[in-house]
């Protein structure tokens, strides 16, 4: 999934144009592009935060992005298992359900 530089504008620009602009230009155009971490590492950090904070609505997008950034499903499951002990069992189980839904939607 190559990243569309105008993804947020297309997804939410009609209702929240400034948030879409900030998402496209600052978050993905700057923060994700900084050289201090590789995209794979940024995906690990992002998926871990979304799981630990129980932000399941954002998980499908970022799980796909993590795959695109080189993470395997086995690694995503291992990350989720690890987070069960730090973020809680319920959030890990919810994250696995989201990952399963991604696989079922192929």
UniProtKB/TrEMBL annotation:
InterPro entries: 4CMD/NDH-1_regulator, AhpD-like, CMD-like. It comes from the Bacteria. Residues 17-100 form the Carboxymuconolactone decarboxylase-like domain. Pfam families: CMD. This is Carboxymuconolactone decarboxylase family protein. It comes from Dyella lutea.
């Amino acid at each position: 999934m190559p990243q569309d530089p105008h993804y947020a504008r297309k997804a939410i620009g009609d209702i929240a144009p400034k948030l879409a602009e900030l998402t496209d230009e600052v978050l993905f155009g700057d923060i994700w592009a900084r050289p201090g971490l590789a995209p794979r590492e940024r995906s690990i950090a992002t998926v871990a935060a979304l799981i630990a904070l129980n932000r399941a609505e954002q998980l499908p997008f970022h799980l796909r992005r993590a795959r695109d950034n080189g993470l395997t499903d086995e690694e995503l499951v291992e990350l989720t298992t690890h987070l069960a002990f730090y973020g809680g069992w319920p959030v890990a189980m919810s994250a696995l359900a989201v990952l399963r839904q991604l696989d079922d939607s192929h």
